[in-house]
Amino acid sequence: MNISRWVKIVGEVGGYALSRAITARRPRILMYHRFSRLPKNGYVSAEEFEWQVRYIARHLNPVTVSQIASSLYGSHELPRSSVAITVDDGYQDFYSIAWPILKKYGVPATFYVTTGFVSGDLWLWPDQLRYLLMKAPQSQATFDLGLFRIETPLSADDFESEFWRVNQILLLADDAQKLQCLASMARTWQVELPKRPPEAFKPVTWDQLKEMQAEGLEVGGHTVTHPSLARVSSEQARNEILGCGKMLEKMLGNVTRSFCYPNGTPDDFVGEQVQFVKDAGFSCAVVAFADDGEHRQRYAMRRHASSSDQFQFLKAVSGIELLGMKFRGHHLETRYD
């Protein structure tokens, strides 16, 4: 029997409750991205998300990320068994699907938005990549697009694996190279990218953010254009972070907000950029991974992935995943002064 199967069996007979009790003084942050009405690959369905939110409302104390930071690094008192739900990027499906469920159960959340995306100045590069691959030629050919080669036609069975293969290559490229590569793909395949994202990739609006903020949502920063901050110059990183903070203040007022690093892996973290996050007035910052360090660094607070996988959700929210990381000594570096 593998370890996951063992953990699942133990969890179902009281292990989840025991883990919640053991980790009651260790707040956790959950990470989400996309939502759908019905089950869909890469999305959390409305039914599954409601089950998870209901579980949190019954067994834990939901808070925002800034409330966790205020407790750990300030005078705010945090209840036991606190957990924060975070959602990245700024898609419309948060407003239409996730937020009504959160409101129904009185559960707050932190929504990290890419301000240029919300303003309609751009659409996110992974969505552009997916759109272009959907428009790939049906003829049999091999295309050398600089950073990678791709063979067409793409079969339905191979589409997702090919998308993620190219996605990972572009994640490691400089931001300018990445955008040039996508533009080259569009030219080569004679595909015109719409100025505004299609319905499937549509952002939330500023009016919707104002509405949700008034109802208790923490709207956090996620840069202006969503680059990996390790793949841009120091000046561009500064403009991305401070520009995001200024736009949030202009559109939503001067309130406490946290920041989220795009992509957020250890390879995307640059310690020197923490000063920009502080200068922009953000209360704290989160990364997109978890380890045994928890929230020891105010500007690199750890997050646990959640998804449509109910077992992964239960491991993360109950603290079993955290306890496992501590037992193994699983640690990732995010150094800054």
UniProtKB/TrEMBL annotation:
GO cellular component terms listed in the entry, alphabetical order: extracellular region
The organism's place on the tree of life at top rank: Bacteria
Stored SUPFAM superfamilies: Glycoside hydrolase/deacetylase (SSF88713)
Example GO molecular function: hydrolase activity, acting on carbon-nitrogen (but not peptide) bonds
Record flagged with keyword Signal: yes
GO biological process: carbohydrate metabolic process
Coiled-coil features, chain-numbered ranges: none
Keyword annotations from UniProtKB, A to Z: Signal
Pfam family, one: Polysacc_deac_1
Signal peptide annotation: none
Domain NodB homology: 81-337
Location of the protein in the cell: Secreted
CDD domains: CE4_NodB_like_5s_6s
Record protein name field: Polysaccharide deacetylase
Taxonomic placement: Bacteria, Pseudomonadati, Pseudomonadota, Gammaproteobacteria, Pseudomonadales
